[in-house]
Amino acid sequence: MIVVVSDRGAVDGDKPDALPPLAGEDHICQDCRLSYQELSIESAIGIIHSIPTEVRDAVLSIPSEVWRERPAIGTWSVAEYLCHVRDVYSTYTIRLHRARTEDRPALEPMFNDLRARRFRYNESNVNAVLGELEATAAGFCEEIDLTGPEHWDRVVTRLPDEQRTARWLVRQAAHEGRHHLDDIQETGEAVMMQA
Q1: Number of neighbouring beta carbons within 10 Å of residue 36
Q2: Which pTM does this prediction carry?
């Protein structure tokens, strides 16, 4: 499913939209059918390990001249999804580290669309970002390896009354990778049909 993105970050002094709530600990994705409660840490790690290769294969199967094309207004390009997945693993590495080492840390939102604009995702060197995705996914897996059984129920917060466990962080990161792999493939198909 191609996601329609919105402006959740202030632009030129505009007030940002409200942040959507995080998926719950018991989330089941309606698109990819991934169930958080049925996803073990070991299975999540397997997904995360496979994402860089699967994303690389998906991106390189799409002609480079359409990597920056958006299939519709308000959607992301292949290059933008790729940069987002890279940033998911760097962000979740820090989030998991904080869950493991701090008492109930409050997490900053990613502000996905603001990142895409300010960091010029659509102008990125796609081949370099593919390498960076390998590094961030590997770094996240290293942080998971440092997380012991005594850490999985540790809590992080974001919005008031919104708390999630360290276990959820790993499941969410696996889901982000799998879900956005599908988005990359679908976006590539859509823009190739339009070309």
Answers
A1: 20
A2: 0.91
The first and second tokens of residue 14, run together, are: 């505009």
Tokens, residue 177? 């990778």
Cβ contacts of 109 within 8 Å, gap of 6 or more: 8, 19, 158
Residue linked to tokens 């900053």: 108
End-to-end CA distance of the chain: 20
Pair of tokens at residue 172:
């969410």
Structure token pair of residue 22: 């995080």
**Count of beta carbons in the 10 Å neighbourhood of residue 73:** 6
Residues 6+ apart with CB under 8 A from 146: 100
How far, in Å, CA of 111 to CA of 119, rounded? 12
Q: What is the pLDDT of residues 105-163, one digit of tens each?
A: 999 999 999 999 999 999 999 999 999 999 999 999 999 999 999 999 999 999 888 99
Question: Are 154 and 121 a contacting pair, CB within 8 Å?
Answer: no
Secondary-structure class of domain 44-194 per CATH: mainly alpha
Domain range summary for the chain, segments of one domain joined by +: 44-194
